[in-house]
Amino acid sequence: MDKHISTQFDSDLLGISSRVLEMGGLVEAQIRLAIEALAIMNADVAFKVIESEEAVNQFEIDIDRELSSIIARRQPTARDLRLLMAISRITANLERVGDEAERMARMVQSICKAGAVGGQGGLTLRLPSGDLRIASDLAAKQLRKALNAFARLDAADCVAILREDDLIDQEFNGFVRRLITYMMEDPRTISASLDLLFIAKAIERIGDHAKNIAECVIYIVKGTDVRHSSMADIETAVK
After folding, report:
1. Residue 4 has what pLDDT?
2. I need a surface site. Which of 14, 95, 115, 162 has the fewest CB within 10 A?
3. Domain count, the chain
4. Which residues make Cβ contacts (< 8 Å) with residue 162, sequence separation at least 6?
C-alpha cells in the first residue's frame, strides 16, 4: 500500500476510535446519573439520563456511517477490516448500554411517580434499592475497564474483565432472592419491587455488554473470536 494512503488510513482509524471512546464517555455519564438517581430516588436526575439517549443513538449512526465510508474509500486489508467490524460491534454494545441506563432511569421515575418513596401523596415504603449499589458499581467499573482496554488494545485486561463477569450475576441472583422476601413480607411493595427487578436486570445487562466489548478487543488484538468460549480457551488464545 502506498505510504501516503496508509497514513491517511491510520488517521481514519485513529479518528473513529476517538469517536468510539467519546461515545463511551457519554454512556458512562449516563450510568453514573442512573446510579445517582437510583441512590436518591430522584426523578429529575433520572430525566437527565433519558435526555442524553438521543445523543448516544446519534453517535451510533454517525460512527456506522463513517465505518461504511472508510471501507468504501480505503478497501482495508483483512486485519484492518477485522478492526472496523469489531468497532461496529463495540458501538452497538455501547448503544445498548445507553438503553439499559435509560431503562434504569425510567424505572426510578415510575417508583417516584407511584409515591413509593418520599411520601409525596402516596405510600412511603422501605425498598431495598441500596442493595443494588454493589452490582451497579461493578457494572460501571467493568465498562470503564473495557473502554480502557479498547483504548490501549490490551487483551490481557480483557481476560480479567471476563473472569469478573460472574460477580455481577451473583449480585443479581442474591438481590432477586432478597426482593422476593420483601414482596412476601409486605405486598404493598410488589409494584415498586418489580421496577427494582427491571433495574437489577438492566445492571446485569450492562455487565454483559462490557463483557462483549472485552471480547471484541481480544478479537481485534488476537484475531480470535472468543465468544461462547470457556475461560481456559480464552486464556490460551490471549497468551
Report:
1. 39
2. 14
3. 1
4. 211, 214, 215, 231, 234
In sequence order, the 6+-apart residues with CB closer than 8 A to the CB of 143 are: 24, 27, 28, 31, 97, 206, 209, 210, 213
Helices (H), 41-154: 43-51, 53-74, 78-113, 133-152
Range of the domain at 186: 3-238
Collect the ranges in the chain with pLDDT lower than 70: 1-5, 116-127
User: Alpha carbon of 103 to those of 18, 185, 206: distances in Å?
Assistant: 27, 27, 11
The domain spanning residue 89 has which CATH number?
1.20.58.220
Distance CA 105, CA 34 (A): 6
To which residue does cell 442474591 refer? 174
Q: Which three cell numbers stand for residue 189?
A: 411493595
Q: Is 11 exposed, middle or buried (0-12, 13-18, 19+ CB in 10 A)?
A: exposed
| DSSP notation for 4-24 | HHHHHHHHHHHHHHHHHHHHH
- Short-list 208, 217, 202, 159, CA closest to 35: 202
Q: What is the pTM of this model?
A: 0.91
